[in-house]
Amino acid sequence: MEKRTWSIKELLFVAAGYLQEKGVSNPRLDAEVLLAHVLGVERITLYLEFDRPLTAGEVSSFRRLVKRRADHEPLQYITGKQEFWSLEFTVNPHVLIPRPESELLVEHALRVCGELNKGEEGGLTILDLCTGCGAIAVSIAKELPQAQVWATDCSGEALTVARINTERHGVASRVKLVRGELFEPLRSQGSKFHVIVSNPPYVATEDLETLPRQVRDYEPRQALDGGPGGMVFIERIIKEAPDFLAPSGRVMIEMDARQTARARELVGSVSAYRAWDVIKDYGGLDRVFIAGGR
User: Fold this and answer.
1) Strand (E) or helix (H) holding 246
2) CATH classification code of 8-71
3) Considering the domain 81-292 in this protein, what is its CATH number?
């Protein structure tokens, strides 16, 4: 057994080199995040205590996590957390890891809510389809303290994670979690929503094998696979949403830039819609499709 004592600086150097050899993106950053997680400190503390000697237990725990990352397991699953909308969310392999692009859904849902209620959010009802860990639903609920948010998902395991996050952020009383696929569990409710948002599975089945290893091999397939062309759930949402929209309500869907043309065609074939818009992400690509109800 190795007898030497490792400092933070030395261990980070070796771990970053190892991760780089394994083809991990951002090896130094990942090594820092993992060591900070093991030590229970902020990353900046590592730099303030570069020469701090580590215990054998700390080194052993860190090495186990580095090995997992070297196998391309997502950093977020290893640490059990991901930041979204400046909030920290619990995540695990039962849920898709929230991406920065999905913050556009929150941003524009809040904008639309302001327009619909002239800046006063009281009485608004919002629906989040395919909620996963609940990041979108919770973020909206935090920003609109008078709103009621419903969130559906077909995965009971995902809803367990979402429930943890609603409680963690103090919105459990205003975010109703319902198990079922898309609108199915709501058909008997008679509820109408001012805004319907969704980040559904939209990766084309034929593209799944081309995804990065850390996505393809670790994130839940049912949260990724959108069927042929990635359009199965998008088409259903566009066609079914009018039955659940309040007057002047909007449906907002995250999708791939290659899917917006088909989404426009679908909206044109549904008489309940009167307008549509496309929001580009920060890379200049079409990302969020918005359609207006009757």
Assistant:
1) strand 245-254
2) 1.10.8.10
3) 3.40.50.150
